[in-house]
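worker-03 picked up job from queue 'complexes'. Input manifest follows; two sequence lines, order preserved.
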Amino acid sequence: MIDEYRRKYAYAEDYGTSHFKFGPVAERPYVIENRGVITSELESKVLLELFGVSKPIVVGEEVSRYLPAVDTMGRALIYPMHDGLVERDNERAWAVIKEITRYGFEKSLKEMKKAQDFDGFYVTAALSAIAPRHMYERLFAIHAELDKEGRYVKAVTIIPQPLAVAIAEKITECIVVESGHGNTQVTPIVVYPVRDAITVLNRGGAEADAIAAEILRDLGYEDRAREEKFVRMFKESVGLVPRDLDLAIEKAKKEPERFRVVFKVPRTTIEIDMGSNSWMRFLIGEIIFDPNHEIYESYYKRGMPRPRDTVRGDQRLPGTLPLIEAIMYSIKRTSFEAQQQIRVAILSGGNFAWKVPQGLEDVAVNSAEKVALQLRQKELDYTVKLVSDPLYSVWKGGIVYSLAVPDAIEWNWGRMEGWYRRGVHY
Amino acid sequence: MLAAVKSYLESRGCRVEELEDQTLVCYSNSESIAVRIVLPASSGGVLEAVWEASAGCRPLSFDRVYIAVPSNFLRRIAGKRMTMLRDVLEGYHKVGLLRVGDEGSVEEVLPAPLRRSEPPGADLSRPTGLREHEQAPQRRVPDTSAALPQGQRIQFSGERAGEPASQVSTPSSASSIPDDLPEFARNNPWLIIFSKRGVDSK
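worker-03 finished. Artifact:
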């Protein structure tokens, strides 16, 4: 079923917002940051002369060398993706995407000590479930151009990241819920992704950051509330997901010492003692699941951004729609037969990585338990699991896809699957 | 259909009971057998109906599990589609196939493999009590890349530490899959599904 050539040269690419994961078949991918430096826009040319660089765009480990030369506006340093998307006409962003793709092939071939039988990889690239058609078109074009340069790409295909997650988890019927920094996507998978049932919410880790910043303000740390990295560290350290928010707050106010936390920044003297306000920890975890809870109204009124509504085709969803309602909405858009088959929900993305401190298990839960409880309240008895490998799952799913899909399946814009092949499409 | 299948099971020396979901179960001294009747809504969706019914049988805790399909529908699955279905039923769902004729005859088209004591995909079964939700201690995926003809992997740094991991279900392997594939590719049902892509759309 898997021929020898495919076994050697199956290759996957995961274009994440912050990191690009790539490589041929192995237990793990290579990883670089998804960013590049445009050398012509560097403030200082001294570094260029020093390193003897002639490349217009630098990516990979080398980027950090040029950061001192990036001007205060950061014009030369490009992060091409935001919430998994690249703007259609952002040529600088696409130039960086092309460069990191090229980097991936060159790095991989160098490490593999390119064999004589090499005639191009079978590449599966993974994009956000809501990536528009122009991103597919552009990525195919980039791979075709790179094949012309270096004969790197025998065939390329693109799959949605939730499908890649389901493949890596070895589950053929499930709901994949992905929550990143800027958005949350719910994708039913029944051997194929059910595209019409994909539901998108315009909220993610950024909302948890926002409420964490408000809490820092309430605690008297206005300055710290403006430092993005500090807010994120605070959020990750103290945030809790409540089994039930109202009950959790009641309990935490009655037993403040039990829930009290002191946030300490390593290698500094900075300490924030939440004291009797430790009940606020639950606001951080809950906002991802239910930003519509009345407790957040006062924060919205004082200026905390309310998540925007999502409009996609004929679908308009409130930005504050509880996550469980978004999952139900997605499930109901699948066929009756599919609903009978789906019994598993997989949670993916850093936004779901919440811990339960020892001793608080009666009040705090992890994300999988939270979603399972809420589904059970809707009389849906699902197994809910966190993705096994949050860093590499998408890449792993891409590798399996590259290994298995036959050559004969050509790219079809209707089904959005198949190989875009040398000799046929380029 | 029910009467025909019931008669077939009784002829094997079993005591037969009828459950919900159009399922018959029979018990003999040596093993337990379940048969789910599948009646596709239309002749156009037979493969999908059979596939979905078979997938739904995965959590059943019986020694052998079959699905029974009327012969006039089953006739529509032939050639490569039957080969693909056989791979999935036998290799992954662990389900056999019975054909039920118009006149009430029942024939075993695919034998049902003897299941393990724990049914395949048991972690996906419906619980009888409160479910334990998975948060296994974090484990690092062993880096066996040195054993493969690949270079060293750059270890990613900077991510949040202590992300929880959960167990991965591992259904039985299908044939023709190399043993030296990475763990995430071994015993992966998607390899079978993707390798047959294009067959089900014809």
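worker-03 released lock.
Chain A has two domains: 4-35+79-161+391-421, 199-386.
Chain A touches chain B through 67 residues (CB under 8 Å).
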